[in-house]
Hints:
Layout: E1 5-6, E2 23-25, H1 30-38, E3 45-46, H2 61-80, E4 90-100, E5 103-104, H3 111-121, E6 125-135, E7 141-152, H4 157-166, E8 186-190, H5 193-197, H6 201-210
Parallel strand pairs: 2-3, 2-4
Antiparallel strand pairs: 1-3, 4-5, 4-6, 6-7, 7-8
EC number: 3.6.1.9
Family: Belongs to the Maf family. YhdE subfamily.
Pfam family, one: Maf
Amino acid sequence: MNELLTSDAPKPQVSGGPARPPLVLASASPRRLALLQQVGIEPDALLPADIDETPRKSESPRDLARRLAREKLEAAQAAARRRDDLRDAYLVSADTVVAVGRRVLPKAELIDEAADCLRLLSGRAHRVYTAVCILSPKDRRRERMVETRVRFKRLSNREIEGYLSSGEWRGKAGGYAIQGLAAAFAVKLVGSHSAVVGLPLYETMSLLEGEGFPVRDAWGAAT
């Protein structure tokens, strides 16, 4: 993901008031973008980071998610501070890790990887760790870790083959997308649904609001 994605849309205004501060999403994920848009936040730029996501030796799934979210934030910070229009922007980054015990499941790119993930998750519980980091224009970093427990039904070979044929698994942590067809596999979810999708909305909004970002300024315009 070396391509720099930006939005040239004007910054939202509220009732003729001053434009809100710019906000950068350190991701090219359409799911994270859609989640922010769902709560009325339209990023002014997308600055995805090209980083090595390989787990370190003995690194726990929780620590991996936290480290990658921080590294994405740092890469986006370096890129944003080189631009006059984004020098005073708020930055948001996140990373999601799916794990069974201490075993980190891959972001499946090959069908065999996705098949192995689904067979492992079939009929058992797993955990999804999503770390979110924000950086204020004053370079104050805040972060949260959200842990969600998900239990899948026992999957038949026909269900696994059908899901694999959909292609929905491609690039998804754990080889599935909870917001898509795989929602039919989830018997139980304890925690944050949006965190499993890729961005915990409650925590993200709380962190931004705590640093002075007007998280609800666009809500009136949406009615």
